[in-house]
């Protein structure tokens, strides 16, 4: 087993809001079900809800407890704009696959909105426009071309020149791409809501339980746990976040570090439509508002995973993020009320790995989410849910382990070399 990671530290803003409690019990004897989900963050919660909705019996376990992994650290901008701009992704994996990934991501955000409405989950959901603003990696000319590329893939996007950007959103930058239909939400309320739906449908939750080994044979996978009892199921889904179990290929996947802050509540100072803002810069900066008017701002990513070094940088990075925020939004009080930092998994292409492990059709895994983790968790619950029900999602190959296609393989190998 890999070591347990120190996934985050500091105090995320979500600790100020109460999420419903999710009941779980210790595992004291061997148990059986149709599916075992390992991990009870947003990915495991989406999976457990989707699988119980299909009438399957589900057990979920977590070595820490429900919602105690990386999910509390998310800033929860649920966006369809994936980390790699469409034109850049096209250069990496070819235009048809890149357009397919972008369109699926767009559909996933719509799908999540519909899912939350259908299940009646109260998670302070609000639809938000987003602005991808010019910075030191993409200037106005490139953003204009990127907006055009998105439109020709059937994804609505409008290029705003500097003046329109200032007039409509109060942002003083050289230009931006305006998109619609992204989601601001409280990630812990959403995760709890999904887990509680699964519980209503008789899912069983056991914590703290650490899955230590998998033995698959035919239609039954036997999962060993650290304290002894075994779990026997037809399928296993590894939704274990950035902590990968043995046997999960970490192709092109690497862990980096990121930082975030949230200000005091200041609803009157929030910019028009509380649009998500993402700066095309390196290091990048992004921001959103909470439902009650705090501003969450993050970025400053560093390419290392050392947790002590990451935690020690929290004060310095918070000052830096607050300064950048003040520059972009001079009307705000940018003094941080909350500051936090976390590990973050990325892949060379920004696309996650989702699907059955090579050679193990009944063991599925989800990893490598980047800045769109929640959107990718939604896609994972769709793709894996369909596979376990015996079907095949039409986009499954795009996210699969051992992806096909020469350009994708080259991108993955390049990722492995730099990873
Ligand atoms: C600062 C920050 C900002 C972010 N911002 C965004 C954003 O704006 N939008 C977005 O979409 N995404 C964002 N992300 C990414 C997003 O937060 C993650 O993709 C998401 O939370 C991952 O959820 P998860 O359920 O996969 O992992 P986790 O929440 O970590 O859950 C995995 C669980 O598995 C358990 N586990 C691991 N191994 C085992 C084992 N062997 N046995 C039993 N249990 C095990 C762990 O204890 C853990 O609880 C951000 C991340 C960070 C750190």
Structure write-up:
With about 425 residues, this protein is of the alpha+beta class. The protein is built from eleven helices and 18 strands. The protein has helices at about 40-55, 85-95, 95-120, 140-150, 160-170, 185-200, 305-310, 315-330, 375-390, 395-400, 405-419, and strands at about 10, 30-40, 60, 75-80, 125-135, 160, 175-185, 205, 210-215, 220-225, 230-240, 255-265, 275-280, 285-290, 295-300, 335-345, 355, 360-365. Strands 1, 4, 5, 6, 7, 12, 13, 14, 15 and 16 form a ten-stranded mixed β-sheet that branches. Strands 2, 3, 8, 9, 10, 11, 17 and 18 form an eight-stranded mixed β-sheet that branches. A hairpin with a 4-residue loop joins β10 (about 220-225) and β11 (about 230-240). The protein is globular and about 65 Å long. The relative contact order is 0.20. The model has no long low-confidence stretch (mean pLDDT about 95). The structure holds flavin-adenine dinucleotide. Flavin-adenine dinucleotide binds near residues 39, 73 and 240.
What's the total helix number?
11
Q: What is the element string, with H for helices and E for strands?
A: EEHEEHHEHEHEHEEEEEEEEHHEEEHHH
Number of strands: 18
Distance between the termini: 20 Å
Main beta sheet:
10 strands, mixed
Catalogue the ligands.
flavin-adenine dinucleotide
Protein structure class = alpha+beta
């Amino acid at each position: 087993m890999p070591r347990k990671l120190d996934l985050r530290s500091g105090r995320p803003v979500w600790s100020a809001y109460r999420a419903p409690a999710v009941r779980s019990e210790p595992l004291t004897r061997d148990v059986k079900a149709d599916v075992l989900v390992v991990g009870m963050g947003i990915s495991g919660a989406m999976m457990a809800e989707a699988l119980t909705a299909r009438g399957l019996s589900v057990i979920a376990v977590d070595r820490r407890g429900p919602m105690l992994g990386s999910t509390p650290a998310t800033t929860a901008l649920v966006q369809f704009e994936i980390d790699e701009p469409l034109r850049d992704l096209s250069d990496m994996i070819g235009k048809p696959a890149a357009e397919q990934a972008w369109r699926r991501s767009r559909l996933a955000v719509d799908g999540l909105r519909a899912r939350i409405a259908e299940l009646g989950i109260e998670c302070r959901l609000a639809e938000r426009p987003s602005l991808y603003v010019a910075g030191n990696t993409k200037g106005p000319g490139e953003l204009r071309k990127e907006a055009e590329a998105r439109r020709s893939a059937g994804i609505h996007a409008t290029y705003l020149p500097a003046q329109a950007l200032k007039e409509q959103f109060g942002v003083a930058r050289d230009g931006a791409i305006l998109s619609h239909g992204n989601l601001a939400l409280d990630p812990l309320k959403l995760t709890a809501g999904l887990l509680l739906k699964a519980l209503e449908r008789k899912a069983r939750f056991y914590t703290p339980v650490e899955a230590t080994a998998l033995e698959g044979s035919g239609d039954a996978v036997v999962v060993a746990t650290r304290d002894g009892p075994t779990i026997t199921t037809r399928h296993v889904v590894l939704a274990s976040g950035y902590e990968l179990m043995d046997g999960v290929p970490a192709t092109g996947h690497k862990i980096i570090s990121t930082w975030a802050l949230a200000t005091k509540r200041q609803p009157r100072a929030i910019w028009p439509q509380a649009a998500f803002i993402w700066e095309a810069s390196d290091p990048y900066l992004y921001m959103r508002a909470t439902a009650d008017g705090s501003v969450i701002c993050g970025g400053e990513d560093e390419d290392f995973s050392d947790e002590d070094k990451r935690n020690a940088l929290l004060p310095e990075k918070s000052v830096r993020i607050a300064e950048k925020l003040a520059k972009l939004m001079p009307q705000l009080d940018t003094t941080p009320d909350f500051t936090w930092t976390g590990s973050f998994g990325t892949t060379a292409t920004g696309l996650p790995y989702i699907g059955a492990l090579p050679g193990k059709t009944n063991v599925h895994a989800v990893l490598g989410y980047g800045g769109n983790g929640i959107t990718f968790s939604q896609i994972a619950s769709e793709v894996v849910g369909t596979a376990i029900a015996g079907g095949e999602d039409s986009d499954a190959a795009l996210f699969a382990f051992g992806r096909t296609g020469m350009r994708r393989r080259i991108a993955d190998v390049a990722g492995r070399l730099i990873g």
